[in-house]
Amino acid sequence: GADARVEVDRKYFVEKYEEMMYMLEELTQHQAEKLQEYENSKRPNLHIRAPAGAGKTFVGLHLMLKKMQKSGGGKLLFVASNEAMAIFISKWICTRSQARDIDRVLERLHLLFVGSSDCRMCSVKIEDSVLVTSPTDAADAYEMIVVDEAHHIYRTDASAPVKALRERVEALMSMKLPKSLVLMSDVSQSDGQARLYPEDDMHEMRLEEVIRSTKRIVAGASAFQINDAMDGHASNPPKCNVPDGSHLPTFIFDRRELESGSTLEALYASKVVDAMVGKVVSVFPGLSLHNRLAIIVPDSGFRDRLQSALELELHNRTQPLGPLSGRRFKLVTAGEACACLKTGSAIGEEEWIVYDT
Questions:
Q1: What pLDDT is stored for residue 234 in this prediction?
Q2: What residues are paired with 126 via a beta bridge?
Q3: Euclidean distance between CA atoms 13 and 20, whole angstroms
Q4: What is the pLDDT averaged over residues 88-94?
Q5: Are 351 and 288 in contact, with CB atoms under 8 Å apart?
Q6: What are the distances in angstroms from CA 74 to CA 131, 157, 175, 201?
Q7: Which residues contact 98 (CB under 8 A, 6 or more apart)?
Q8: Cα separation of 1 and 36, whole Å?
């Protein structure tokens, strides 16, 4: 008989994995046990401390969603050091709420974050499948205040905008205490700086089981983990119940590759798109990259210098006979990407690529 041929559709596996991640709603046994300890403590406030990938944000949002799904409750405030994270949380809440309840749930949510020049208090709503924030006044009182990346916000040497954010939270709490304050901090980021964490009626939850980051990432991050043995807790390596993960490819190029009349930005853009084609597009043929690929750069100056060259390089590669022929890409900020509720697009439709610091 004819030889049989088996093909694997990697695109299908990526899409199914993404779908499973969005559907992930249940706490792990470890997280559930830690949450039960908090509830048994009868303390109103909670400080979740964990390494990257242990699910501290997931646990915090689980508490928020539990409050939001109860009718007749007050408003909740989510605090973040940047707009993109605040909008991402709103998106997470939307994906885990019943369609008929989304508007009601979002009405109870306020976001507080550092804007371009100062702190912004916003409400959020959906317009044409996009989350839109609007300035709003603070509520008279909040049922719950959740502070993400508290290890940044409560630094003694925090930048002026972040310090102003912290002072705004403290002012809101001094007016009328929320029923509960939830802090989430990362022990994987050590800088030797003290923190000004609130301590009144605070239960400390330590998550020690990594479920999201690969073993390679956990091993790398452990070298930077905050050593908090001074407070009686040893900084032992976390348990890691995930695969090893692939290695991180490195792309090195020589400035001498610059052609006459070209620029370093043009060469850099060419190498970025080479990596995109070689390590993503060719490995997952037919997969839309809409909101699935991020190009992260070190600072805003670098981002601005590279952007026009990168847009031109992407345009040239999408021409007929190019490796990205027929595709259309748009570079967007992390905030814009998080605001989009559409998770994928067909090849040929505009695909958003996150391009940010």
A1: 44
A2: 131
A3: 10
A4: 89
A5: yes
A6: 21, 34, 16, 21
A7: none
A8: 61
The single-letter DSSP state of residue 310 is: H
- Give the contacts of 72 (CB within 8 A, at least 6 positions apart): none
- Look at residue 169 and tell me whether its pLDDT is greater than 70: yes
Q: By three-state DSSP, how is residue 316 classified?
A: helix
> For residue 277, with 0-12 CB atoms within 10 Å meaning exposed, 13-18 middle and 19 or more buried, which class applies?
middle
Rounded average pLDDT over 8-16: 87
Residues 95 and 78: their CA atoms lie apart, in Å, by 17
> Which tens digits make up the pLDDT trace of 264-311?
999 999 999 999 999 999 999 989 999 899 999 999 999 999 999 999
Look up residue 229 and give its DSSP letter: G
- The pLDDT confidence band at residue 52, using thresholds 50, 70 and 90, is confident
If we measure between CA atoms, which residue out of 64, 54, 344, 88 comes closest to residue 225? 54
Which residue reads 């509830």 in tokens?
Answer: 39
308-335: burial string, b at 16+ Cβ within 10 Å, e else: ebbeebbeebeeeeeebeebebebbbbb
Q: Which of 115, 197, 199 is nearest to 162 (CA)?
A: 115
- The DSSP line for 155-204 is BTT--HHHHHHHHHHHHHHHHS--SEEEEEEETT---S--B----TTEEE
Q: How far apart (Å, rounded) are the C-alpha atoms in residues 188 and 222?
A: 6
Could you identify the residue written with the tokens 């909670």? 46
What is the pLDDT, as a whole number, of residue 241? 60
DSSP code for 349 = B
Segment 133-145 mean pLDDT: 93
Q: Give the separation between CA 209 and CA 35, rounded to whole angstroms.
A: 14
pLDDT in tens, 61-77: 899 988 887 767 789 99
